[in-house]
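Translate structure to sequence.
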């Protein structure tokens, strides 16, 4: 075998055969565009659709989302935004001008979002067409000098060149290589799923961006507190609070209704987790549409009721004491279950009872009645603090502090149903001038001073808080996320590689077999795979009796050995060859 001058070898062939292993756009040397609108537009488009700009925009988008999680957002909690503005006279107006209270709908966030979307499309479309072209084409033919490949093996055999090529073609196809005969060699390629995974990852990002935008524009989310025995219809007036996307319309709400039949909660009674909820479940009867038949089901934490693309989540729980109030004439002016809001893990609850119309005091004058209420599911006794000792109804007590006067409900200002505005109210006082306040057991009554009426604690019902969400595009977002993970895994772990098997008849009539492999990245699997293929082909085309074996891997100036020559001193990794050929040497064959 003859060799060229090792010091002057050129790597152009290696660059050519490896150039098509990737569908990444080839970047030409940067040249300034011609002056003019079209030239600058073309230059801007090339920069925007480059992969480095797409990665930069993705990084900027992640940074831009940080204020949305640290600063209160007006679309989620208007109260916290107002409180922040009150406490920060300087930062508040600045944040408002910068759009930091509504990050995800701000102009600058939308600009990054849209530019990233365009950049990804500009990156993917040409790469997709190039990849399709590669799939429709054939692997490139073998280079002139296979010895220049990183993994290389050769031997001489008595089999004809046609027989070797036929064996090689079958062996490569059995290993799922795309292979064909090109001239005196078989060209094969494998690992296309690597680039397919890369494209799938980027396409999945686009799907996720679209799904996220669609969900934000058409989403809706509302909360409703329901006492046992009451019901709910999915219409806007029924919600306690409601928020939606910019393109959402009331007609987009799915028509359904449900009644809360019963709520059941159980708790750990002993051990370090005492009081921790074990079961929270709400039994409901629901119907879809105006004429739908009622169906019974249970809603549990993280197990929502799904109706079309709406989900009904169980998000909170509490108690609603049943109160009966009579005025000074003995007339019932209020009788209902009053939901109270929990203050701690043991469901110590607070709230207000307001009688706005129909109440007369002991003298027959029209008045308004307001009562501050605290409820303890498990009262610890007179010597304990006024807090519940356990979240279950073991020893319930209702602590009431009554007031009368102007509730300010007609002032035109919104107020919470759970709080009293005491600025125009007067406390009821006993004969000693002390403010009236009592703890009531179930069935007990409080008598108001001066014949102003009575308040009776009749029992306790439980309430459940539900959140109804409608998030279109969530399924697409999930599918995009899964596809992105699978695509990324494919692009990271699948190796794109090429193999060539050349069989040519030498001057002495003996067939010379050459095999070479090339991977897109440095991978130990290429020499191993080449060695396995060589073993398979060697079984069908064994070494000729007088032939010697030569192996070269990544050898720019490797020695060529004739029979009996000294072994080269330079060590290089070799492809695994058949055992029968590993200790033999090969005679040179002229290229």
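Result:
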């Amino acid at each position: 075998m003859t060799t060229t001058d090792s010091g002057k070898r050129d790597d152009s062939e290696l660059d050519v055969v490896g150039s098509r292993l990737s569908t990444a756009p080839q970047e030409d040397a940067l040249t300034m565009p011609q002056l003019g609108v079209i030239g600058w537009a073309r230059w801007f488009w090339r920069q925007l659709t480059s992969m480095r700009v797409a990665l930069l925009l993705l990084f900027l988008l992640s940074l831009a989302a940080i204020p949305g999680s640290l600063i209160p957002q007006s679309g989620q909690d208007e109260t916290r935004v107002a409180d922040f503005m009150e406490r920060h006279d300087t930062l508040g107006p600045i944040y408002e001008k910068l759009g930091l209270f509504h990050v995800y709908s701000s102009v600058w966030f939308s600009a990054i979002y849209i530019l990233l979307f365009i950049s990804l499309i500009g990156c993917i479309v040409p790469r997709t067409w190039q990849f399709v072209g590669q799939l429709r084409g054939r692997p490139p033919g073998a280079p002139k000098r296979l010895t220049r490949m990183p993994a290389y093996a050769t031997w001489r055999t008595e089999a004809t060149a046609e027989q070797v090529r036929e064996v090689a073609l079958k062996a490569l196809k059995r290993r799922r290589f795309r292979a064909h005969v090109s001239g005196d060699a078989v060209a094969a390629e494998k690992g296309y799923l690597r680039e397919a995974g890369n494209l799938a990852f980027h396409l999945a990002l686009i799907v996720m961006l679209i799904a996220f935008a669609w969900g934000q524009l058409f989403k809706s989310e509302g909360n409703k507190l329901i006492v046992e025995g009451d019901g709910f219809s999915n219409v806007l007036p029924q919600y306690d609070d409601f928020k939606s996307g910019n393109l959402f319309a009331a007609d987009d709400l799915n028509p359904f209704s449900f009644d809360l039949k019963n709520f059941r909660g159980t708790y750990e009674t002993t051990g370090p987790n005492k009081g921790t909820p074990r079961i929270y479940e709400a039994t409901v009867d629901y119907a879809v549409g105006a004429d739908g038949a009622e169906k019974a089901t249970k809603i549990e934490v993280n197990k929502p009721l799904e109706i079309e693309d709406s989900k009904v989540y169980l998000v909170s729980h509490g108690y609603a004491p049943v109160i009966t109030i009579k005025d000074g004439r003995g007339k019932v002016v209020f009788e209902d279950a009053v939901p109270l809001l929990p203050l701690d893990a043991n469901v110590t609850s607070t709230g207000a009872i307001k009688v706005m119309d129909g109440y007369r005091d002991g003298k027959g004058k029209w008045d308004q009645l307001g009562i501050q209420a605290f409820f303890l599911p498990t009262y610890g006794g007179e010597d304990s603090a006024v807090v519940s000792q356990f979240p279950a109804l073991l020893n319930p007590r209702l602590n009431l502090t009554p007031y009368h006067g102007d509730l300010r409900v007609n002032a035109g200002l919104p107020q919470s149903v759970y709080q009293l505005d005491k600025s125009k109210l007067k406390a009821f006082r006993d004969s000693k001038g002390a403010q009236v306040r009592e703890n009531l057991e179930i069935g007990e009554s409080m008598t108001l001073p001066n014949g102003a009426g009575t308040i009776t604690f009749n029992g306790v019902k439980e309430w459940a808080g539900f959140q109804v969400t409608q998030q279109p595009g969530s399924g697409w977002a999930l599918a995009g996320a899964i596809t992105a993970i699978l695509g990324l895994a494919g692009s990271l772990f699948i190796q794109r590689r090429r193999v060539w098997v050349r069989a040519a008849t030498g001057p002495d009539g003996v067939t010379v077999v050459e095999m070479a492999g090339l991977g897109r990245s440095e991978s130990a699997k290429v020499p191993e795979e080449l060695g396995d293929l060589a073993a398979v082909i060697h079984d069908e085309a064994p070494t000729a009796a007088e032939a010697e074996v030569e192996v070269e891997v990544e050898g720019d100036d490797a020695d060529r050995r004739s029979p009996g020559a000294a072994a080269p001193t330079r060590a290089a990794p070799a492809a695994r060859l058949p055992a029968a050929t590993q200790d033999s040497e090969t005679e040179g064959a002229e290229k």
